[in-house]
Amino acid sequence: MRAASLALPMLLAASAVSAATAGDTPSPTVATEPLWEAGLGAAALSLPLYRGSDRQRQWLLPVPYLVYRGDFLRADRDGARAQLARRGRVELDLGFGAGPPTRDEPGGAREGMPALPPTVELGPRLNVRLAEGAHWRADLRVPLRAVVALQSSPRVLGWTLEPTVGVDVDWQGLQFGALVGAVRGDRRLHQHLYGVTAAQALPARPAYAARAGDAGWQLTLGASRRVGRLWLGAFVRHDVVGGSIVDDSPLVRARQGTAFGLGASWVFARSAAQVPVAR
Questions:
Q1: 198 by DSSP, 3-state: which?
Q2: What are the boundaries of each domain within the chain?
């Protein structure tokens, strides 16, 4: 439900577009890589203020490049997570996410309403390998996450469920990913994002009580490349709210929106310890 994940550089490597996780798939060729790597860079992003907003905001952010290839805890192109269980093609992990704050400008749909605080997300994710080849894979991912507001008194805003199908390709050192899926939320979360109380109502912004259910869908494309110690990445995401259960909210002024970004990081440290990874 967030405007865009700020778990960088996973976003720019299309964390929403996950790619092959080191060691996930048995392969006849096995190499080794450092247990952890750390770096720093910058990213330029253009994001809608929120899903359904007709206004865009540009961000220039530092990019912490963090990779950890542990057996239980991992931080890589699939995001930060803890692996809970795995059997054959099915895996269950505990994932994390984040969202930026939102403050509308004069004349915007949310003018005069409280700003939306930054958020973190936490919850289980079911991963099912659907098909794979020598340099590609297709997966079904079903994350269920609690959305928590980061403010003086943190509180759970609600739950989001985003079942998706992703295809990832490694080609001559380039990683490409495509991810498409539905966005669903409970009543509390939709009321936080799209609800309008009687006290906030205006002639052009009537009171609105949100409901639980379908909140549209997203298509994300991403690419990244590692050249020595330099990491490069870019993504574009198309977001559709039109026709969903929140489409009739007065805060939804754009039924479709696009987010995009690119960035680079320099990897300046890595562990001496090596771990096996599949190629």
A1: helix
A2: 30-278
Q: Residue 34's CB: how many other CB atoms inside 10 A? A: 18
Q: In this structure, are residues 234 and 205 in contact, taking their beta carbons and an 8 Å threshold?
A: no
Say if CB 215 and CB 247 are below 8 A apart. Answer: no
The pLDDT score that the predictor gives to residue 21 is: 35
pTM of the entire predicted model: 0.83
User: What is the pLDDT, as a whole number, of residue 131?
Assistant: 96
Handedness of CA 51, 121, 20, 225 (dihedral sign): positive
CATH architecture of the domain 30-278 equals Beta Barrel (2.40)
pLDDT band at 268 (very low <50, low <70, confident <90, very high): very high
Return d(Cα 160, Cα 244) in angstroms, integer: 15
- Rounded Cα distance, 98 and 89, in Å: 27
Give the residue with greater pLDDT, 155 vs 68: 155
Q: Are 230 and 219 in contact (CB under 8 A)?
A: no
